[in-house]
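Dissemination and training. As part of the outreach component of the grant, students in the summer workshop were shown how a complex can be specified as a set of sequence lines and then modelled as a single object. The example used during the hands-on session is reproduced here so that future cohorts can follow it. Participants entered these lines:
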Amino acid sequence: MQILKHKTNIDFISKRKPALFISTLINLAIIVGIATVGFNFGVDFAGGTVVELKFNTPTTEEQVRERAQAGGLHDVTVQRVGPAEENSFLLRMGGVTQLTAENAESAKAAIQGLGETRSVYADMANGIVNFRSAQPMSAEAVKKAVEGAGIGVQEVRDLGANQGGNGFDYQVVASGMADKVFAALGTGMEKPDFEQRRVDYVGPQVGKQLRNRGVMALLYSMFAILIYVAFRFDFKFGPGALLAMLHDVIMVAGYYLVSQREFNLTSIAALLTIVGYSVNDTIVIYDRIREDMVKYKGKGLPEIINIAVNDTLGRTILTSGVTALSLIGLLIFGVGEIFDFAMAMLVGILVGTYSSVYIASPVVIWLGERAAQREAHSGAKQEPNAA
Amino acid sequence: MDRGWYWKFGMIVAVTLGTLWFLVPTYYSLVVLDRAERNNIAVLEQRLPAWAPPAKYRLNLGLDLQGGIHMVMRVDTKTALQKRTERRGQQIATYVNDKKLGEVTADTDPERLELTLTAKDPATMDAIQKEVLATFTDFTQESRNGGTLVLKPDEGQVNRFRDEAVDQAMLVIRRRIDKWGVAEVDVRKLGTDSIQISLPGRSNPEQAKELVGTTAQLEFRMVDDTNPQVFAQMITQSPPPEESKITLVDDGGFPQLSSPNREALLAYAKDKAPEGRDVLTECVANPVKKNDCIAYRSFLVDKNVPLTGESLSGADASVSQMNEPEVNISFDPAGAREFEKLTEAGVGRRMAIVLDDNVHTAPNINEKIGGGRARITMGRAGSRSFEEWLGEAQTLALVLKAGALPAPVTVGEIRQVGATLGDELIKKGSLAAVVGLALVIVFMAIYYRKAGLIADVALLLNGLLILAGLAFFNATLTLPGIAGFVLTLGIAVDANVLINERIREELANGKSARAAVDQGYDRAFWTIFDAHVTTLIAGFILFFTGTGPVRGFATTLIVGLVASLFTSIVVTRVITTYFVHGRNAQSVSV
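and obtained this result:
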């Protein structure tokens, strides 16, 4: 069996300019979109709390939302996961702990109402209120007072007498948002009618760290691959491979942007895999170009590239097709982020194939032409594009 | 068919058998054992046949697939540092006073961590400044303004202290989780100020948070050695239940109860303790894996807690003039008085150092200790090396500091997956993998006929190799890992497509079957190699920068690519060579 029965002879290279133009346009649009609309950052990167609940009785998104609101939760997004009969929902909240800018003030007031305090300050990032009081206090009383101000308290830490002898130090640790969700949805019920399936809870600093590390990982790997390509092939192949990689990464990022599916650590893994896969495809064609450069010494680079691309076309379609085939299972049965991962990979495979033909190769021609021009300027009489 | 072929064929058979052999513990842990026992390495070890590899070489399921809690705790080093600076400030003030250099008050700025010394008489400040800077070398001068001197903790000291605070917190967390009795926990440092904890099979994040998030409690309590036979009597009067595995051990004149099960030991001894006494346990550390307890031993201590970590102002490990490791501890003035009283009354008795209800050590009180400074000498008896004793001293110092200078920990990240969700994910994940794999296998067989079937054999071997490789590296299979598995198989097939297309091309150019196969493999080799190396680069960077599930994906990708290089280049070639060269075929089915 064969996909392409006859040798193709498509003139890819002559269409490189409009193709490059359209690709650049789409890429720019995606970059602008990322800057303006932005990704739907998952809890990994944005920080916050996500709770997955499975209700025992048929429930709608609207009902969950109403119950949350009745329980005093206002900024919660509710999203159904899986089929309707599963009654599973994702509840998402921005905060990690119950301490917010507004209620920190009431917590401070509540603490100050207990007795003479030397200093009170809230550490919002960690959900802690630190204070130093003139007399030793009972942890129970502090807890009661702060809870009275409407903030769930996980623990009151007694840090002991201050060494300078000017008071006693305490920390009030606010409890997490997940507690609040369970409390809110369980209001007025003897026993909650739901099962807690998953709790994800990422502090704002951790989220920022994870995001920075993800971006660094992308940059490092592109750089490392670039060095490898430059070393294995020739420096003039490097920029083409890099641009193709960038193109593919941006396109896959575009998938997350347009679909507004959650962008998280797994998405970073998808982008990194695309970097590897994209260059894979490019290398196969580069390999053939290099081989053909030796084979057809007299021909110009654009012609050689056309031959190489046409010769490898069947293979290019096949390898992409087979990899896509292996993803079908993930696309059908994959849940949540795995479905997104498979979808992103599919997008990546398609654009990767395209970019190795229309981005990676034309850049080699373009660089070749420029080098030839420069040599012509300096007066050296040399056959253009001779490798 | 030359000799080399037989060698290669033999190697492939050996690799295949080795792979299957290596997957035996994984098969037992995931299929044969009950789910509740899945993480219990001891049970697995028992059930495994004698010829199987050790139980530790098995594929773990990630927390996302089996349910459990993943936590990242952030150590509040800033608060700890601030407390420490305050303590040092008081020490400096006392020192200045003792040396009769003058009188100073010390104040700490909590935000900027600066220590301000103010002299009652500004004229004395010159002498004070000179002496303090020479003695307290962990501070550097920030500014001086007449009678006030502003000091800042030395940068190197701050970093060391920060590391130490994280180590202390880790130690406390390990002990606590151990107390909870969770098997196969993983506690490790993450970055400079975070600790990552994995608790497979656990489902209550609030309980976990409470367990690891509270401040360490250090206590000094007197050991009751008045009746050394107390535990022996307990055992004769009411023998413990068989399943608690409680035995009586005696090394050094104080018989103790010992059991691998802490809960059982405590439950047994609880109401049998004499009035006014508590039974606590001490951990007998695993000689190989330091933070594991292989058994727990009983201790009888006074209920009364005369002294806590609050009164401790410092602890450091050092080496004495006798070249023996020791731990020097110091108390604040009130603590020093209490300590003096305690040691005076307790000469000849032992004092237990208790952290979170675990007896860490119980040194003997040799004499009354005044002045608030005490020394715990470690001795050098037994077969242990100097380094081991010194390590012991350092751990003890760490324990003391963990109680004395607690660095509060806060939850930075919690991910909890319920067990039912985990089951569902593993079902869907493996179904997805099987469907993807089946589609590829069918396609290859139809499209390339015999060569496709050969590629399929290689593909299956590749899948087994990935699983065995993951088991060998003790890696964890996560949901993204399953996706990585599928993707890697896709990439592995790519290599076979490259080769087969190349062979077809050579055949189309009129080459003989043999020449086409040889040329196809030779020509495709570097292309495949380059393609694999570039993806490997991405994989390694993912591995070193990623955490949790992403790391699982990266591991799968790396192992898969290496396996793919082997199967696509070596395995298929050997089989193809057999059909083309060995059978002396004139045609090749591609």
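The beta strands of chain A are 40-41, 48-55, 76-81, 88-93, 117-123, 128-133, 153-161, 168-174, 194-202, 262-263. Students were then asked to discuss how this feature might be tested experimentally.
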